[in-house]
Amino acid sequence: MAVGTTVRRGAGLLATALRLVGTLIVAVLVIHIVLTLLDANPGNGLTQVVRDLADYFNLGLNNLFLPAEPKLAVTLNYGTAAIIWLVITTVVVKLVRRVG
Length: 100
Hints:
Number of strands: 0
Protein name: YggT family protein
Transmembrane segments: 12-35, 76-96
Strand content: under 5%
Radius of gyration: 17 Å
Largest sheet: none
Organism: Pseudonocardia ailaonensis
Structural class: mainly alpha
Number of domains: 1
Keywords: Membrane, Transmembrane, Transmembrane helix
Shape: elongated
């Protein structure tokens, strides 16, 4: 097998792994928004895990917008973080594929 083929295959695998990780991060942020909008029990274990993960991946944007309505604040702040993660993931995956 040629070296170029191996590099392309490795870059393809790396790009796929990065896309998966980015998609999972976006999913966590969106699930947190949905759970908040649906008034999920904040004491529930699943809700706490999702909230903790969303807080970890929110890029420090949990107080970017400060509307009076808390649900709107979560939607705007975590939604913005989700969009940014989606853009970052797309750009990084394209760069990895191009380099490979």
